[in-house]
Fold these 4 entries.
Entry 1:
Amino acid sequence: MSRNEQIAVRVSEIYKWIEQQQLANKEIAGQCAACGKCCDFESYDHRLYVTTPEILFFVDKLSEKNIKKMTGGRCSYQIDNKCSVYDYRFAGCRIFSCKGNADFQSELTEAVIKKFKALCSELQIPYRYVELPTALKNFLIAEHARQ
């Protein structure tokens, strides 16, 4: 199995673990109403941070040619108030719900960060935890430099 395949499998496992935690804690986890408000980061006063394995997973699933730069405060993958990358969305998107308990979401986020750090250590991937616009921009810059 290639390193990219290993990363994809392991990130998928972490995402499934998030879902299991939410199902086990339905009453406080909150459920996304798919209203799209939180995808407008600036107006919602929301910031989305992503880890290195998540970006690698995202790029692998979307393919490099479909990576978009974020030019404003709204996620560039939200189209007609819907997430166009829902199956590949990041842990922060999976965890956050405007109707959920903030303490539960914070604790779940911390647990997930530990899992991603351990994954990076195990697979010898540099660990980064950066805002989504920066992660996408850095990927596009690196991709441009390779061409």
Entry 2:
Amino acid sequence: MLPEKIHLEIVTPERRVLERDVDEVILPGSEGSFGVLPGHAPMLSGLSAGVAVARGGGEDVVMAISAGYAEVDASHVIVVAETCETADEIDEQRAEAKVKELEEEVASNSETDPEIVRLRMLKHIARIRASKGKY
């Protein structure tokens, strides 16, 4: 018999961001976003910077997640991420300013590795999207 809910736990090195039973989880996998429903096959996935969503009880909790990993089984999802912020915790103006700053850094041909700048930019773009509820 399939479980009716999934127990979701999201942690970072600083805190436990979310722990609750949900109907569905959407995560930004390293190979693309994926959804998890009750009864999902066991898997381990790397996560990239992006928007995550926890759906349950008629509400969506939208979050910005940076790199990490997710361990999934039929009734549990455990996410360990470098950073994770819920939409209401994000300062959208600060995230937009950070993206602009990084764009200027790339345009100035600085010594910074472009891949590092790209990854940092993806993190802040995810923060902007999450703060607007876009996923």
Entry 3:
Amino acid sequence: MNLHALLQARAAAGKPVRAALIGAGKFGSMFLSQVPHVAGLEVPVIVDLDPERARDACRTVGWSAELIERTAFSSDGAKALTDTIDVVVEATGSPAAGIRHARAAIKAGKHIVMVNVEADVLAGPLLADEARKAGVVYSLAYGDQPALTAELVDWARATGFHVVAAGKGTKYLPAYHDVTPDGVWQHYGLTAGEAQSAGMNPQMFNSFLDGTKSAIEMAAIANATGLDVPSDGLLFPPCGVDDLPHVLRPHDRGGVLERSGMVEVVSSLERDGRPVFRDLRWGVYVVLEAPNDYAADCFRQYGLKTDSSGRFAAMYKPYHLIGLELNVSVLSAALRNEPTGQPLGFRGDVVAVAKKDLRAGEMLDGEGGYTVWGKVLPAATSLHVGALPIGLAHRVKLTHAVARGAVVRWSDVAFDAADETVRVRKAMEQTFAH
């Protein structure tokens, strides 16, 4: 509630918060669009594989020629670790790059805001532990749905409510799990030509559609809050905001959850494709349970939508603005030394599942691609079956055939045990396995 006041004090003292951005894609561009309008916040370094593209992004979001001239653009991640930088924002989307950049930032004594949820789910518990030991902040990115959901969970618990369920909304039908980049645009109401002219990446957008991104975000929330993930993946029940407390309650109380205290994603489409009434496609929610009759009476008195018992209610945010809200994380880390959510344990994992019958010798192409989609499972289950994380299911060759719908295992692929990303992941498993 006082971030702006703290920032004003820093600005008045001539000590602006200085952030370096790695990855000037859509999320990074949205963040950059706000920077000129926040006195006391500067982004003097922007790192991207294509520095000229990053300059173009700054022009597109309204940076002045003078501000662009004062900014250092580079393709070298080490440039983000200069002495004057307070916070590193990792927004590349590559698990390997994200892990590498986060560890370098932590080693250099910089706070790290991990926009890169793919990297967070692959090894975030270990990275956050390393950051805590180094005395710096490792944070989820405010504006993205995991951090916003974690905030709602924290609010509910801090006010004395039991959290029954938490998560987000999305557009989902069961058939989406099999969609490949070739067929993605029809589900967004676009032609391939329109998407190409807008610079939209079909594999990235397909990862949102085929369930992978939802799985990744729910694993991040579970790891940050201690909530459980469903034993056999997300259910994606159709549900609007008015029905959240009715649908997202335990099965023995009339809902769809295995038990209380779960993450789940609600669909904005009924199973026959009709739109859900008052859907939550762009938002996040928490379902809470009144601890006593008095609190349940207050739910009714103050107009909360509840289930028929009056004991379960929901709070939600109907929208999220991703990079436009990222300043909250950057400033929270720099001014309060606090994360806007961070993994505290290894509760959920996202494993690769075959989209079709895969043959030995085929090359996996990662999230949103033609070969696999990501399914969230309890971390203990993933480790027990030896499942291959979706973040490592890219450019690896199958050594065994895998049937459509089956989980791909470590033993099914040829992986490089000496690869840094593999080693970090294996270290995380060993450190946090229960």
Entry 4:
Amino acid sequence: MGRTQWNNAEVCGEMLAELAVNALIEEVELTPKPGLVDRKNSGAHQDLNISLMIRSANSLKTTFAAIGSAAFQQDPNHELREKIAYIGRIGEKKMFEAVATNTHKGAIWALGLLIASAAVHFPGSGAKKVADTAGKIASFKDRKAPNASTNGTNVYRRYGIKGAREEAEKGFPHVMDIALPALIRARQKGLSETEARLEALIQLIAHIDDTCILHRGGMAALNAAKHKSKLIIQLGGVSTANGWQALSQLEQTLLYYNVSPGGSADLLAAALFLDSWKRREVKYHTQPLNKYHEV
């Protein structure tokens, strides 16, 4: 297929869905992740395991594809915001039918917005522009959203922290200014891809007010998680012997409070999605394209 045939909503949706699902699977397979499900164990989760998480990610492929197709080269307006929200709610139901738990509810929000934004600018634009447009879309109120209490709204009422919603509305600053730069720095230093992704995750835990931690463990758990993560950074990161030992200490702290940094994991998946989008965009401009899955 030539470049002109890329001007297609279905191709756009399928490609972005593939990038998003891959990002979710790459995030869950990253090992060892403190307090989170990985190939080694289930962290602070008694009801989850890696097989369930991968099945959940795969169940979202049609949802992500539908969001990408719906947003393809559309204006980032109120109508689009409500359209992708509706698709996302249907996707949540499909996910629950597949795994009987809300494994990736936060990821549907973050990745759904980024997919929609990437589709608006499809077939190419920089990660910063995608993040900024995602923030613009998120800023429109979903007038059709059900008036239901969620973990996020409960945290906001108790602590005044908006969490994922504010992150999105501001254009994913912790993804753009923390996670992606951490990935790039680690790769430039010659770290392995596993170490680079762990560096990005630790930076996120250290800097965000993770509402998943707050919901289950309160402010004491959040402060402890941030303190232990910053210690890893001060010791030179996970690629150093002392930093690796401190990573184990962070794991024990999270298990002590029985909390999981799920918000940080969602933003890591968002960073991996944008990273893969960026690499795809470079290849789009530098290589002849015959099939969409070659990029």
